[in-house]
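tool_call: predict_structure(chain=1)
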Amino acid sequence: MSKAVSSISSSRRGLLLAGAGSALAGCGFQPMYGPASGAGGLSVDMRRELAAIRLDYVGERSGVLITRALERRFVDAAGGETVAPKYSLQVNIVFGAEVLGYRIDGAISRLRFTATSNWVLLRRGNPPQEIRRGVVRTIDAFNVPDFQFFTAEVSSDNMQRRMLDEVVEQVFLNVAANLRGYLSSPQG
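tool_result:
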């Protein structure tokens, strides 16, 4: 490619990127971790606000895995810095299962699981103030091979791990977006 053609394409790329940036700015787009404008026009550091979230106890093995993963995500958002707790997050998860396939002999050949997680973000205090609540749902499935019990167990564990990772990611993003909206609103 000649020098003239590469300079034309690079200037086109620059114009395209500038246009995309101004279009995003015009629609109100703001980075998730960027400073949020709080009440009175004060800037709020979202990373520190996310690190100030503490999770309430979630029972069972899946609840413990979700709690640990979410706590890690919130602390990592602040670069590992510990912050005094200002918010409380309550999360629960419920699993459902349904059979998708049967073999000729009537044995199950495929299972589908759904995971539904409800979360509530509270501002700590007496009494606690509800900021936002939401629901996250994910679906996954696995095959049950003929007489391969170990393989079926490994497939089930991998499916549950994928589902929990998806729930953690969606809860984290929902909480971060809703906390940002709360802090940018007049009551925040």
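agent: The longest strand covers residues 87-102. Proceeding to next step.
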